[in-house]
Specification:
The structure holds two protein chains of two kinds. By secondary structure, chain A is an alpha+beta fold. Helices cover 47% and strands 16% of the residues of chain A. Chain A has twelve helices and ten strands. In chain B, 50% of the residues lie in helices and 13% in strands. Chain B contains 14 helices and seven strands. The chains are: A alpha+beta, B alpha+beta. The interface between A and B is large, with 48 and 48 residues.
């Protein structure tokens, strides 16, 4: 039975996260972007809302919540509506947790999830992209060679969030040579198991700490190999579904700001919103945000039903990323010169939104 | 709870209408495009019989906007939720995939019926729907547009002058879809220009009423299988019982009649999506299926071919428009105000269908331009879906007013 209605719990969840986005994240977004630092308190508050480990079983220190892709996309839109860097920081441990939840052996879950402590909840991350121009997952170059006892990893990874403080990092690498997604597995490395190199400096996402990693003969025990058994594409579908929802959030932030500005800003004796170009552009932005959100919902619904959502999620991610440029560019345009000035957040959302088309990250829902 | 699972009826309707479109409509689509103004008599009868045997009235009229207020609102909620608008959107997308011109030829309540359901009294709904859902193929037309206006429905200049139990209608109506075959026309007229919008009423004028004349048929860019007529009313006497909503509810006339579009916009959007799908499928079949290729969804641009990327873009746009349309239809099924969402869906679908049908020809090369193939027809057919029932610009205006909370004066 088709329905576009949030359940009561989902409504509560959305409102709670929206409130967090507006009253906590937005208060420090610009400062975080300028300084490159996200206040620890914000991440902690996110954790207290159950955003980092809420879905883990109670035995492993979680809240025993359900792993629901639909609930997640509703939450993610709100977090990104607050601030994308902060959202990705809060969600970074999920890059590790979710693949482990879905594919990990019981001993692995026990070993790592119990490392979460009340004051240590940002202990995990994952490394996926590599610093090659025109990077493509299918031709991922990091290798894991079986030397009998352990696996030996060699390669470079890029854009690894919070790698400097993680207790363990899930590194994706290829066993042997070849191409394609099927041969990729996950390898868990403790802190110090690789070299954390320089911090990434990006156009946007400036508040989020990301690093390049270098693996030069890093050794991984057999018990720390996360066998994906061909499940890599499904993890990507989950990641891309999350990406669609995050895109909707950033777009909505830019759209709402431009809408409010257009109502207040006068030109030639009347609000610029009463001019058709401005009004129609806002109408198109609103329409596209609805469409992006529905794509996230549909894809998440498929995941929750156990359906193959790879195509749905991939199409949606690309569409959303493209449309995010339309929306944030025009939000900047509606503000005119003020859109270019860092006193307004719109230029930050424009920069942040550019990341969606190029970033591949691991499943966070 | 968010859900995208079709009911068994929706699944059945989708499959059935798709097969019907493929087997019955596609083979004759070119013929009725080339032979404009030829009535597809056999198709009309066959389609009528088919829907009748299924007990499925192919219209938006079954659960459209509620202009009656609380009593009927309640009644609507007590009925089992058939989700007729969503079902209609799903089915008509498939039908339109067969031929968007013939789609408009399908007998049934049509736009006129939708207006009756939106603005009529219970008695009127019963009386007129009996005609429109009768044993013989019939059609309800909407006569709104005039030579002097299109989008601005409040500019109606056709007059209605009261004369005892009758109203005398005078005026010219153009762009009446199905105006050649209608059994009844919903004619919009004004009781007096000085009354403004409050004076605008919708009257049901039955075929054969003296003074009602079909003046001429338009020659069009596309949807040639469907005739568009100019209808002239000359001292046409219509009984007061045919004033939609009744005389007592005069203040609701214009608004009530405008609610027709809450129900019809998602359907029009669904048709546009169906056409987009035809063009997409046609090029997909040729590029991908015939060559044994596949689209590598999710691969970066630099690892893919241009056409592969364009096809994925097309699919994404169709997907976006479809979800917006389903949502708008679903809202109406559940008694939620959907004016903004219906306009979003229609505006988006209108843009998407033009883009996709144009691009498909380019992808096909010179052959795409040839009338040997249907691609050129679909591009011609598509254009009207960004024009009628409110142009894409009017849809954006409606959405913009809603999001800005602006009046007609604040945003012109």
């Amino acid at each position: 039975m088709v329905s576009f209605e949030l359940s009561e719990e989902q409504t509560l969840l959305r409102d709670t996260c929206r409130d967090f986005a507006l009253t906590v994240m937005r208060k420090q977004d610009r400062q975080a972007d300028e300084s490159g630092e996200i206040p620890a308190d914000i991440v902690k508050q996110g954790h207290e809302l159950g955003l980092t480990t809420g879905y883990l079983p109670e035995t492993y220190g979680g809240a025993g919540g359900q792993l629901s892709a639909l609930d997640s996309v509703i939450v993610f839109e709100e977090l990104a509506y607050g601030n994308l860097s902060m959202a990705l920081n809060i969600l970074a441990p999920s890059l590790f947790n979710i693949p482990l939840m879905l594919h990990g052996a019981e001993e692995q879950k026990k070993k790592y999830f119990t490392m979460n402590k009340p004051d240590q909840f940002q202990g995990f991350t994952a490394a996926l992209s590599e610093p090659t121009v025109r990077f493509d997952l299918e031709s991922m170059k990091t290798t894991a060679l079986d030397d009998g006892d352990d696996f030996v990893l060699n390669g470079e990874k890029s854009f690894v969030a919070i790698a400097d403080s993680a207790l363990a990092t899930l590194v994706f690498a290829r066993k042997g040579s070849g191409e394609g997604l099927a041969g990729i597995d996950g390898f868990i490395l403790p802190a110090g198991g690789f070299t954390v190199k320089e911090r990434e400096k990006n156009q946007g996402l400036r508040a989020l700490k990301q690093f390049t990693l270098s693996l030069e003969g890093s050794r991984v025990q057999r018990s720390d190999v996360l066998k994906l058994s061909g499940g890599f594409a499904n993890l990507l579908a989950r990641a891309r579904t999350a990406s669609i929802a995050l895109t909707a959030g950033v777009c909505r932030a830019a759209y709402e700001y431009a809408l409010a500005y257009a109502r207040e800003r006068s030109a030639f004796g009347e609000p610029i919103a009463s001019r058709q170009w401005v009004a129609f552009t806002l109408a198109e932005m609103a329409t596209e945000i609805d469409a992006i959100r529905l794509m996230a919902w549909k894809s998440a619904w498929m995941l929750d039903k156990g359906m193959d959502a790879y195509k749905e999620a991939s199409i949606g991610k690309r569409y959303a990323a493209d449309t995010a440029m339309f929306i944030t560019r025009n939000a900047t345009q509606i503000l005119g010169g003020h859109g270019f000035i860092r006193e307004h957040p719109v230029e930050m959302w424009y920069r942040d939104a550019r990341s969606f088309a190029v970033s591949e990250f691991m499943a966070i829902l | 709870m968010i859900d995208f699972e079709f009911t068994p009826i929706m699944k059945m309707a989708r499959e059935f209408t798709h097969n019907y479109a493929r087997d019955v409509m596609r083979p004759i689509a070119r013929k009725y495009d080339e032979e404009e103004h030829t009535e597809p008599t056999e198709f009309i009868q066959k389609t009528h019989d088919m829907f009748r045997s299924l007990g499925f009235s192919f219209s938006t009229a079954n659960a459209s906007g509620d202009a009656e207020g609380t009593s009927e609102h309640k009644e609507k909620h007590e009925r089992p939720k058939m989700e007729m608008n969503l079902l209609g959107a799903i089915a008509i997308e498939e039908i339109a995939w067969g031929c968007p011109g013939l789609t408009l030829r399908i007998p049934g309540p049509g736009l006129g019926g939708a207006a009756i359901m939106a603005a009529g009294t219970p008695e009127q709904k019963k009386r007129f729907m009996k005609v429109l859902n009768g044993p013989k193929p019939s059609y309800g037309a909407m006569a709104l547009t005039e030579p002097g206006f299109g989008s601005d429905a409040s500019a109606v200049s056709t007059t209605a002058v009261k004369d005892g139990d009758y109203y005398i209608l005078n005026g010219t109506k153009i762009f009446v879809t199905g105006g050649d075959m209608a059994d009844l026309y919903v004619v919009w007229a004004t009781l007096g220009k000085d009354l403004g919008r409050a004076g605008i009423k919708a009257f049901v004028v039955e075929k054969g009423t003296p003074g009602l004349k079909m003046a001429r048929l338009e020659h069009k860019l596309g949807i040639r299988a469907s005739d568009t007529a100019e209808v002239v009313l000359e001292d046409c006497r219509v009984h007061k019982d045919n004033l939609l909503g009744g005389e007592k509810k005069e203040e609701k006339g214009f608004k009530g009649s405008m609610q027709t579009f809450d129900a019809t916009l998602p359907m029009v959007a669904a048709i546009a999506i169906g056409i987009s799908g035809s063009s997409y499928d046609y090029v997909y079949e040729d590029f991908v299926v015939k060559n044994g290729l596949e689209i590598n969804y999710g691969r970066p641009l630099y690892k893919r071919g241009y056409i592969e990327t364009v096809l994925e873009d097309m699919e994404a746009k169709i997907h976006a428009a479809r979800l917006l349309t389903w949502k708008a239809a679903w809202m109406l099924d559940h008694g939620l105000p959907n004016l903004k969402e219906a306009s979003m869906a229609k505006g988006k679908a209108g843009t998407v269908v033009d883009e996709i049908t144009q691009k498909a020809i380019e992808l096909y090369g010179p052959e795409g331009y040839s009338r040997r193939h249907l691609l050129e027809k679909w591009m011609r057919d598509a254009k009207v879906y960004d024009v009628f029932e409110g142009t894409g610009q009017i849809q954006r205006l409606v959405v913009a007013r809603a999001i800005l909370d602006y009046t007609r004066k604040e945003l012109k």
